[in-house]
Specification:
- With 297 residues, the protein is an alpha/beta fold.
- 36% of the residues lie in helices and 21% in strands.
- It binds zinc ion (2 copies).
- The site of one zinc ion has 5 residues, from loops.
- The site of one zinc ion has 7 residues, from helix 4.
Length: 297
């Protein structure tokens, strides 16, 4: 985590350096991405956008999420160094650009792209609206409730528990390793984006997290789409419970404010959520707005 903060600070002060100093640093910037192995054959990749996970097996490679095109190219180059096996499947936890814009780098490389059926529709709708269809690689495989497939010794299962961050979020379980990629269903100590335009529901998001806590166990390692500076993008059921509490406290707070006669503009000016003060930083207006809209719908 310290390294990440260092990179962040360095980026801010980069412009103040002399050209010679910038050249000294350029090596750093070319490798600003980071791979962390969670087991011998499962790792996470972080650079820009939602955390990527990958599985290396004797039968081939699986990748979960793709960040942006440059980032996924960095990842693919590194995977090639680690394994000569084909990329059997690229899984998208949901449609947002910071998880799927990099799909295009897998064109002709990944044998399949897999996502929940709503995620595929959302990706198509977004691309049409933004005239970005030529920059997409859409899923060629979708599922409704559950999807499972063996890859080497690992069993990969996707679960859909209804609307949360969007209406198409998958939980991706690597069963043997007991690792679950939560996509953006967990923002670790960071205020979440709640995509109501894509069917998000904060109320049901709580249910989704409850189902995950029930389905998996205390030894499960979770991978999170995003975390606040100084927090990890991996964690345990305790982090899911903390985020569940955050969503609950946000709804309780906004409901109380509505009952007290406060306007939306007044409510979204709050600087913290009572009972969930660990969530700091920018973007608090987004969950407050989403809670207000969901509660007054
Ligand atoms: Zn994201
Ligand atoms: Zn997202």
């Amino acid at each position: 985590m310290k390294r990440r903060t260092f990179l962040h600070d360095t980026a801010l002060t980069f412009g103040a350096l002399t050209l010679a100093q910038q050249n000294l640093f350029s090596g750093w910037f070319q490798q600003a991405w980071k791979i962390t192995m969670l087991t011998d054959d499962i790792g996470i990749f972080t650079e820009r956008g939602g955390t990527i996970a990958f599985l290396l097996s004797k039968k081939g490679i699986a990748v979960v999420d793709s960040q942006f095109p440059d980032q996924s190219k960095h990842l693919i180059d590194e995977l090639k160094k680690k394994s000569q096996k084909p990329i059997k499947v690229l899984i998208n936890t949901h449609h947002h650009g910071d998880h799927t814009a990099g799909n295009i780098s897998f064109k002709g490389i990944a044998e399949h792209v897999l996502a929940h059926e709503n995620s595929k529709k959302n990706q198509e709708n977004w691309a049409k609206q933004n005239k970005a269809e030529d920059k997409q690689l859409y899923p060629d495989q979708t599922y409704t409730d559950t999807w499972c497939q063996k890859l080497g010794k690992e069993n990969i299962c996707l679960y859909y528990y209804g609307a949360g961050h969007t209406n198409g979020d998958s939980l991706v379980h690597l069963e043997k390793a007991n690792i679950v990629h939560m996509g953006d269903l967990v923002f670790n100590r960071r205020h979440p984006f709640v995509d109501r335009s894509a069917g998000a529901s904060m109320k049901n998001w709580i249910t989704v997290l409850d189902k995950a806590i029930e389905k998996f166990n205390k030894k499960t390692t979770y991978v999170f789409g995003h975390a606040a500076d100084g927090y990890e993008v991996t964690g345990t059921a305790e982090d899911l419970k903390a985020f569940r509490n955050y969503l609950d406290k946000t709804l309780v707070f906004v409901e109380g404010e509505i009952k007290a006669g406060k306007s939306k503009d007044e409510i979204i000016k709050a600087t913290s959520i009572p009972g969930a003060e660990e969530w700091k930083g920018d973007g608090i207006d987004r969950p407050l707005t989403a809670a207000y809209e969901e509660l007054s719908a």
